[in-house]
């Protein structure tokens, strides 16, 4: 199979995985939002700050180093497997030690109890990381999609059943642990005839991966802290309930960034790595990926901002209405992140993980200072502060994309102008529909507004950007 065919197949299977997993995750969240309270979601947000931070250390950033290298000896893979598990055990023990200081910081004593169980995930995840990395490196996205969908189903069933049994926050915690037990099982079953780790460990043989991995891990850590400084400030100064509202809104806008964008971005890094010496192909690939991402995420985020007053009460209940203005501001943050989404894959393929690290440091410092000032205006102030910082970050990212990838800002603008115009037209039509028909039943009104948005965007794109329809159709038809 050629590289192009692998890329097309990868996009297709990532699409299947995204669609199935996202529908399941969204439905699960809707059910849990009606069983659990905003405070429960706020406590979960505090827990996940610690757990997700630990994930940044779980492989020393060397997973992408394995993908970036053309040839990796089997002995190195075995060393990586055992190293990942050793690191996972260390992280588990560290969380057991720091869980009480974390509870003190957030002024929520229950956090220490929840973290005791949540940390168990680090005894499971390290065993799957290398298998996941190998599937990506070899661009075998079909089995990856099947495994991911399976564990999402298991998580959804487990979490909902436990929530109905009044387990509260622990219903989500235990749901994650249960699905990861199955994740380990599925990975070993799939790889049992091709490759399994040997009892071989030589740390000296994998030191050469560390420089790339160190910058990548540093970038992830700093990037994670900067991405969660808003949660840290809200949780500490505004409380669990406020964090619950903010987390719900933030999670909605990250759906395109974490579920839809990876359809293309998971293919981008290994593909860029294979063509890293052909500058023209890199430039063309970067612009095309940006265009495809914008084609999908522009209307979703813009439409979500318009229908938020209708969507939030229907999907989650009236008790979540406080999240509406937060969601509308954060949708603009999502749009800014969309236009520079492939930059990290480009930097990694060029072996320049250090640049992403320095960009993350800038974001962390600027975000901390900005949000500490804007917190005086509550959750809305925090959301607006995130928007301001993201706008400044985009400028820095585009500068580095132009310098490393030889792709100037005008080239990116040229592939997005028509899509942006179609999105603005869609936003205007949906907003006017919502205003003029506001007396209708809320369910009927939402259906009409969404219908108007889909028709307006599809028709306008077909008229002014017909080529992208053919390209999307080609991706669907071809493997």
UniProtKB/TrEMBL annotation:
Membrane-related topology note: Multi-pass membrane protein
A Gene Ontology term for the protein's cellular component: plasma membrane
Pfam family, one: Polysacc_synt_3
Transmembrane residue ranges: 43-67, 79-98, 110-132, 144-165, 171-191, 292-316, 322-343, 355-374, 380-402, 409-430, 442-464
InterPro entries associated with the record: Poly_Biosynth_Transport
Domain of life of the organism encoding this protein: Bacteria
Key words, A-Z: Cell membrane, Membrane, Transmembrane, Transmembrane helix
Cell compartments where the protein resides: Cell membrane
Main subcellular location: membrane
Family membership noted in the UniProt record: Belongs to the polysaccharide synthase family.
Protein name, as recorded: Colanic acid exporter
């Amino acid at each position: 199979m050629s590289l192009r065919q692998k890329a097309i197949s990868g996009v297709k299977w990532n699409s299947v995985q995204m669609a199935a997993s996202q529908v399941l995750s969204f439905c699960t969240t809707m059910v849990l939002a009606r069983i659990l309270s905003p405070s429960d979601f706020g406590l979960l947000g505090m827990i996940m700050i610690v757990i997700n931070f630990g994930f940044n250390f779980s492989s020393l950033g060397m997973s992408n180093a394995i993908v970036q290298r053309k040839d990796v000896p089997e002995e190195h893979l075995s060393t990586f497997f055992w190293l990942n598990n050793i690191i996972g055990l260390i992280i588990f023990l560290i969380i057991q030690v720091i869980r009480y200081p974390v509870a003190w910081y957030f002024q929520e004593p229950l956090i220490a109890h929840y973290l005791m169980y949540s940390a168990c995930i680090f005894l499971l995840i390290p065993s799957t990381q290398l298998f996941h990395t190998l599937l990506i490196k070899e661009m075998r996205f079909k089995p990856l999609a099947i495994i991911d969908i399976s564990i999402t189903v298991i998580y959804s069933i487990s979490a909902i059943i436990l929530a109905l049994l009044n387990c509260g926050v622990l219903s989500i915690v235990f749901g994650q642990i249960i699905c990861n037990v199955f994740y380990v099982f599925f990975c070993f079953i799939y790889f049992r005839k091709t490759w399994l780790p040997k009892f071989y460990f030589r740390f000296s043989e994998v030191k050469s991966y560390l420089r790339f991995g160190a910058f990548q891990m540093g970038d992830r850590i700093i990037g994670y802290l900067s991405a969660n400084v808003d949660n840290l400030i809200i949780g500490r100064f505004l409380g669990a309930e406020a964090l619950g509202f903010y987390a719900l809104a933030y999670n909605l806008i990250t759906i395109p960034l974490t579920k839809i964008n990876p359809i293309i971005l998971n293919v981008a890094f290994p593909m860029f790595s294979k063509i890293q010496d052909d500058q023209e192909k890199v430039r063309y690939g970067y612009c095309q990926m940006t265009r495809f991402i914008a084609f999908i995420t522009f209307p979703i985020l813009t439409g979500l901002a318009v229908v938020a007053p209708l969507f939030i009460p229907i999907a989650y209940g009236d008790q979540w209405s406080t999240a509406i203005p937060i969601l509308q501001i954060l949708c603009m943050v999502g749009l800014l992140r969309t236009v520079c989404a492939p930059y990290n894959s480009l930097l990694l393929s060029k072996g320049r993980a250090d640049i992403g690290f320095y960009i993350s440091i800038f974001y962390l410092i600027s975000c901390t200072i900005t949000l500490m000032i804007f917190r005086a205006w509550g959750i809305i102030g925090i959301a607006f502060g995130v928007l301001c910082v993201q706008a400044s970050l985009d400028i820095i990212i585009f500068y580095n994309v132009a310098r490393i990838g030889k792709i100037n800002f005008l080239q990116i603008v040229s592939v997005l102008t028509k899509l942006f115009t179609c999105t603005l037209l869609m936003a205007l039509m949906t907003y006017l529909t919502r205003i003029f028909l506001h007396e209708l039943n809320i369910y009927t009104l939402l259906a009409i507004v969404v219908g108007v948005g889909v028709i307006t965007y599809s028709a306008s794109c077909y008229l002014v950007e017909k080529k992208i329809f053919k390209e999307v159709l080609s991706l669907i038809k071809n493997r």
